Each structure stands twice: as structure tokens, then as C-alpha cells.
Amino acid sequence: MVEPAYRRRGLGRALLGSCQAWFDSRGVDVVFVSALDERAASFYLREGFRSCTGPWLYRSR
């Protein structure tokens, strides 16, 4: 989670991109995240994740 004062600067997208690159380099095919907050869920959906069950979202290669 990015501190509110630092939001809207691309930090979350950069962090997620680094995580995704790390997962890709290790052959991870599917990543699940839990987003209870609607703002967080919207962020992940914009970044290519898909809704799953309950608060869970996933992204596959």
C-alpha cells in the first residue's frame, strides 16, 4: 500500500511491475491478490488482474 501523500505518482504501478518481473523471472504463472478495499481492487483490475471469488483477484501470464 502506498502512503496517501505519495499516491497518484506511479509508485504502486512501479512496485507491482517489479513484483511481476520477479514472478516472471521465476516462472510463476498465476498471482493472486486480496483486495478488500474498492480502491485497491480497482487498481489491480486496471493493471490486468481479473476478479475471482470474494476479495480475490488474479493475473496469469
From TrEMBL:
It comes from Actinopolymorpha pittospori. One of its GO terms (molecular function) is acyltransferase activity, transferring groups other than amino-acyl groups. PROSITE patterns: GNAT. This is GNAT superfamily N-acetyltransferase. Residues 1-61 form the N-acetyltransferase domain. InterPro entries: Acyl_CoA_acyltransferase, GNAT_dom.
